[in-house]
Write a structure and sequence with these properties.
The complex is a heterodimer of chains A (about 270) and B (about 475). Chain A has 14 helices and no strands. By secondary structure, chain A is mainly alpha-helical. With about 475 residues, chain B is α/β, with parallel strands linked by helices. Classes of the chains: A mainly alpha (about 270), B alpha/beta (about 475).
Chain lengths: ~270, ~475
């Protein structure tokens, strides 16, 4: 009985916090359905469900092209960061070689450099390489990150050393151990890193703006910028645009979350 | 064998770390430009910026910062130009908001990939002039016998440096007073008589709040632009050397001439009365307070008139920007907005093409269409005589207030506004000074000296870096 009470209380609390968290998104959707005067009349709910603002948003900025570009870029960046991060982290955590710690610290130090400080330098390099206005330019500088290596290293360090020793005794090489034993065990970390990286890449604004010029190479966040005026903004298309670009990031989260849970439930060493 | 593996690992880790440091290394698959299925205007802007010529046409690039309806109007203007002749093709590219655009242009100046025409906001004028990458538009007037009086003098004066017009005004606005006529009626005020001075603003606000017609009488965003406007409104200079237009400014003038103190005192008094309120430095928040009927009067750009009319559930009235000192005859408003600059890409054909496009933007028809669809001023007075524009003004009498205010403003050094390389920084410092005055940390005197000291330091820093 007491247990049941606690359960219900937990549910009520959960619902309460869920409502708080979801209300801005809900309001965003509501505004995207409102008429101009409704927005400022103070109501929370729209009086009608109309697609006008979505049509307007799509007129002002080709969001489907932007979503395609952002998907290409974000997926590649996520894949790249997981691959490079896992490989480097494996070396940093499971292998012993001279200068390992120094190299790791050097790499960590790059996290201290604010991205704004190097963005112009990166831009000039991309220009020199003749890569302006290409997907490569959008992807390349983000394909590896110190954070990904750090994050994956923490995951590998969590694995009991006994697994590695057992593998060594059985004659299992590093690459095989990495692919078939270590990686499946760090799936939750890969999932978390994947979600984080995808969302970060999805939200990039300044870098895509710098290295692309033409409308059909642009990404979603620039699309939102295209809806805003200099002196005043009609917020309804902006909210409609936000709703449109929200869908892929929610999907990414759902997909990543599955990985998270399946990884958490897979066991390793007995006892 | 084991040793080799260790080395492999070391190399692997080293390669990973190096990829992080910069974006060197081997490139992955080359990106391709995918064809978008959007409207004609956007697909035109698709291919490479550096495209030399298409079918004998001179192709030039325009960078702009116009989003939303203004972005649509810009595309329409470019399209109209491209269809008006068959020698030049303008490719317009949106490059983010004003601040993003200037960042991108600075990077492009370094990498040598500048556009041929670039829009730049008012406060970027000094930077553009000092960059050395711009061709003054006045140098091009003779090539097409362009009459400088095509564009209103009060507008070009802002973009004139050392007697030379540097750029062509594109989107122009000034601040003005917006008020809620319904609230005025409810408070027993004449809905057709807006306040002219800040004394009247206070008096009207008191009536509005005390009659409970609206919870807040007056509001204005904490925005350095309004401070600059009130200095010009008193017929005073912001900075020395005639607002930095005779020679580069070396220090602010508003401290010595007393204009700054008067502004801080007036606004502080208004806020302390309890009849006015402060919604912070985001102009959209003050707009929201007005549109929703909470604040009865606000100061805003003339460019938001269209949005204001469409957003508000009440009748909107407009008036001239209230003055601090009603007797200042030399005072007036300063124009804001942005202008079109010609970038020097050392290409004669592109230079001439760029000028022809800029000249096209000033024709009465271009300006009338532009003004009607955006709410900015038409820079060419003849635009107001076109039938379409006459109809538009008849339907939007509030727009007349904006035009008349500009026409009534004397053309002089005060209303030309300050030419400063540190305008953005100064406005940020102003925000701090104003906030600290409102919350009582600083007295108006302290706030003005704080502001003057910080801005002077910024000016000195800028001057030493450009020498």
């Amino acid at each position: 009985m007491k247990n049941k009470m606690a359960k219900y209380l937990l549910y009520i609390l959960n619902i309460f916090f869920a409502v708080i968290i979801i209300s801005p998104v809900l309001y965003c959707f509501n505004v995207s359905m409102m008429t101009m005067k409704e927005v400022f009349s103070g109501g929370f709910w729209p009086k009608q469900l109309i697609p006008d603002n979505y049509i307007k948003a799509l007129q002002l900025a080709p969001f489907f092209t932007f979503i395609k570009n952002s998907l290409i870029v974000s997926c590649t960046v996520t894949f790249g960061q997981i691959v490079t991060g896992a490989l480097a982290a494996y070396a940093f955590s499971m292998m012993k070689f001279r200068g390992r710690n120094a190299l790791f610290l050097l790499m960590l130090a790059t996290m201290m450099i604010p991205s704004q400080a190097i963005i112009i330098a990166n831009y000039l390099i991309i220009c020199d390489l003749g890569l302006k206005n290409t997907y490569t330019a959008l992807i390349l500088p983000n394909v590896a990150s110190a954070f990904a290596v750090f994050n994956m290293r923490q995951a590998f360090l969590q694995l009991p050393m006994e697994i590695k020793e057992a593998a060594d005794i059985d004659g299992c090489g590093n690459f095989r151990f990495f692919c078939f034993i270590a990686l499946p065990l760090v799936k939750p970390s890969m999932g978390a890193l994947g979600i984080y990286t995808f969302l970060q890449s999805w939200n990039h604004y300044l870098w895509p703006l710098l290295v692309t010029d033409s409308v059909n190479m642009r990404t979603v966040q620039i699309g939102l910028g295209m809806l805003q005026g200099a002196e005043s903004t009609d917020f309804r298309p902006v909210m409609a645009g936000s709703m449109i670009i929200l869908v892929p990031s929610i999907l990414a989260f759902i997909l990543g979350q599955k990985q998270l849970i399946s990884g958490l439930t897979s066991g390793s060493v007995k006892g | 064998m084991k040793r080799r593996k260790k080395w492999l690992a070391a190399i692997m880790a080293a390669v990973m770390s190096m990829t992080l440091a910069a974006c060197g290394g081997s490139a992955t698959s080359g990106g391709t430009t995918a064809a978008g299925s959007t409207d004609a205007a956007t697909t035109k802007a698709a291919s490479d910026t550096q495209a030399p010529a298409e079918g004998g046409k001179t192709v030039i690039t325009l960078w702009h910062a116009m989003g939303g309806v203004n972005g649509e109007a810009t595309e329409a203007l470019v399209k109209a130009f491209n269809e008006s002749q068959n020698e030049i093709e303008v490719k317009s590219e949106y490059q983010g908001k004003y601040d993003d655009l200037i960042t991108k242009l600075k990077a492009a100046m370094q990498s040598g990939s500048m556009p041929d025409v670039c829009q730049m906001y008012d406060i970027g004028t000094k930077f553009m002039t000092d960059s050395g990458h711009a061709i003054p538009v006045q140098d091009m007037f003779a090539t097409t016998n362009f009459d400088p009086s095509t564009v209103m003098n009060i507008i070009t004066s802002y973009y004139t440096v050392n007697g030379k017009q540097m750029s062509m005004p594109f989107n122009v606005s000034t601040p003005m007073l917006y008020y809620n006529k319904d609230v005025f009626k409810a408070a027993g005020l004449d809905p057709n008589t807006p306040p002219k001075t800040f004394d009247e603003v206070l008096e009207f606000s008191k009536k509005i709040v005390e009659s409970k017609a609206a919870p807040v009488g007056y509001a204005q965003a904490i925005y350095g632009w309004f401070f600059e406007q009130q200095i010009a409104g008193q017929g005073k200079f912001y900075a020395n050397n005639e607002n930095g237009r005779k020679a580069p400014a070396t220090e602010v003038d508003f401290l010595n001439n007393g204009a700054g103190l008067k502004i801080f005192e007036t606004w502080k008094k208004l806020m302390d009365s309890g009849y006015a309120d402060n919604y912070g430095s985001t102009t959209a928040d003050t707009q929201t307070a007005f549109f929703s009927g909470q604040a009865a009067m606000i100061i805003e750009s003339t460019a938001i008139l269209k949005t204001a009319t469409e957003s508000s559930d009440f009748e909107i009235g407009t008036g001239y920007l209230p003055k601090i000192d009603a007797s200042a005859a030399d005072g007036g408003v300063i124009i804001g907005g942005a202008s079109l600059w010609m970038m020097d890409n050392k290409d004669e054909a592109k230079k001439n093409a760029a000028w022809k496009f800029i000249e096209f933007t000033t024709t009465p028809d271009s300006q009338a269409t532009w003004s009607m669809s955006t709410g900015y001023f038409a820079v060419n007075p003849k635009a107001y005589e076109t039938p379409a524009m006459k109809d538009f003004i008849a339907q939007n009498p509030n727009f007349t207030t904006a035009i008349n205010q500009l026409k009534d403003t004397p053309v002089n050094g005060y209303t030309a506004g300050v030419l400063s390389g540190v305008a953005t920084e100064s406005r940020t410092i102003f925000n701090e000074a104003m906030e600290k005055t409102y919350d009582g940390t600083y007295t108006p005197e302290q706030a003005v000296s704080f502001l003057a000291e910080k801005v002077n330091a910024a000016i000195a820093n800028y001057n030493s870096s450009t020498k």
